[in-house]
Amino acid sequence: MSSSGSDIARSVGAYAEKTWQGGEFFLRVEAHRRQYDPAVSTDNAHDALPAWSLDREAALATSLRSHWPLRNPREWAWGGATGAGVRVCIVDSGVDGSHPRVGAIQGAVAITADAGGELVIAPDEEGDAFGHGTACASIVRGLAPDCEIHSVRVLGGELTGSGPALLSGLQWAIDQRFDVINLSLSTTKSRFAPELRELADQAYFGGCLLVACAHNLPVPSFPWRFSSVLSVGSHAGHDLFEYHVNPSPPVEFAAPGVDVELAWLGGATIRATGNSFAAPYMSGLAALVLSKHEGLRPFEVKTVLRAAATNTQAAT
Amino acid sequence: MSVPFLSAEDERLALLQSVVDLTRTVFKARACSVMRHDVSSRELIFEAVSGEGQGSLAGQRIPATTGIAGWAVAAEEPIAIADTRSDTRFDRDFAEQTGFVPERLIAFPLLDGERAIGVIEVLDPQVRERDSVDDMNVLASIAVHAAAVLTLVQAARAAADPERPPSPLNALERALQDGAPAQREAALALVSALETLLKTTG
């Protein structure tokens, strides 16, 4: 173990020592989790990582063992796949289908309030007011060029806050049985957690892979913490296919989320940073896997993605 | 009796101004602003500005339903953006009022418990030795401080609102200062009782 790893281990105590063996990466991740997750500990850890992002250098230096019985799991997982036949839903601020990095989208609805104040689904007449949903869609499209992209707008326009509209939009997306639902959002409002957990279970048992980004701040938020979703934090790499398994969940995967090039409003291309841009990387990869292996259940997709992760050592 | 620190609106705003001034200095940015989220009007209101727009933007409103700052509040998530000039619509409201469009921008929500009460924006940060992740880390700490100050500002304004039903302490204060003789007598009796309580409890 390096001295830096030992220092971190000392700072978080014996707990980190017994979590995983032989890797600064694991200690760093665990130290980070203990620092920011109030459910784990309030000990002082000294790691400088932001909430739920990954020390990429440490991750690259360490490999997890895989029991996957293939020498080249990536080729098996998505080799030759384009996303064709897979329906991906972006639950976000809307999607601009006229952006060349997104291309045509197959459907767009928005949560709106009817005359009585009840939330209902209606065709999205306003489109993306923020740019965020368009950005997420462009990342999915970059990985899975032939997948279908659908949009459910739960933010922007008359929609404020992250509670009821998010629940309604997610419920609708699950009811449509999309193969992959990308949720680069979360809510900090704990009163919505039970219903979100129920929706996440619905998605899981219904065969919808719910991909959710971890919050960027060290605050409790949902639904990314639930085991039925595929949760994503970020790392600072820029390779489209570089992603890591986190051995210390609740964040399960780390994908590019720092200075990511993506589509924005007005046909623009910008660079942006945030865990919300890491989630659509995993959604795009999941679309590739499902394109090549139709009918995989969410837990099977997770297993395949774990086996093909950058920091997973293939079985020999 | 001396005036307690931060008892006046201009003192509280001076504290908020110090937050944006400090943030602009730390990031060597062209501008930094704190905006308050007005939920009822779905707008963001400039409360303090340092650098570009300072002296002219305070009190100005922009929609909370669009733009990077609007996103940070709506999603309760920070976001860092670069290469913004390729989008002619980028933060148009701010640009129209300040005369410049930033190339880089970080927007961080100001959270009070489970509510986003505002946003702090750093425009064109120039500290190149840090990457975006480090910027986010630094601003995360500042945002906690800014949120606490903004909460203080809002609470003080709410307490001073003449249309707001008086709290027991407000009622006590008013009775002592302007009350009818019977009210003043009752208030003094209460204060006397409190003094006795404090003495007997050490």
Descriptive notes:
The complex is a heterodimer of chains A (316) and B (202). With 316 residues, chain A is of the alpha/beta class. Chain A folds into two domains: 46 residues, no CATH class; 241 residues, 3-Layer(aba) Sandwich (Rossmann fold), CATH 3.40.50.200. Chain A contains ten helices and 13 strands. In chain A, strands 4-3-5-2-6-7-8-10-9 form a nine-stranded mixed sheet, sandwiched between helices. A two-stranded parallel ribbon of chain A has the order 1-13. In chain A, helix 1 runs parallel beside helix 3. The N terminus of chain A is likely disordered. With 202 residues, chain B is an alpha+beta fold. Chain B folds into two domains: 152 residues, Beta-Lactamase, CATH 3.30.450; 33 residues. In chain B, 47% of the residues lie in helices and 20% in strands. Chain B is built from six helices and six strands; from the N terminus they run αβββαβαββααα. The mean pLDDT of chain B is 84. At the A-B interface, strand 12 of A face helix 2, strand 4 and helix 4 of B. Strand 12 of chain A pairs antiparallel with strand 4 of chain B.
Give the neighbour order of strands across the main sheet of chain A.
4-3-5-2-6-7-8-10-9
- What percentage of amino acids of chain A are in beta strands? 15-25%
**E-strand count of chain A:** 13
What would the principal axes of the Cα set say about the shape of chain A? Answer: globular
The shape of chain B, in one word, is elongated
Could you tell me the CATH topology label of the largest domain in chain B: Beta-Lactamase
Number of helices of chain A: 10
Indicate the CATH architecture of the largest domain in chain A: 3-Layer(aba) Sandwich
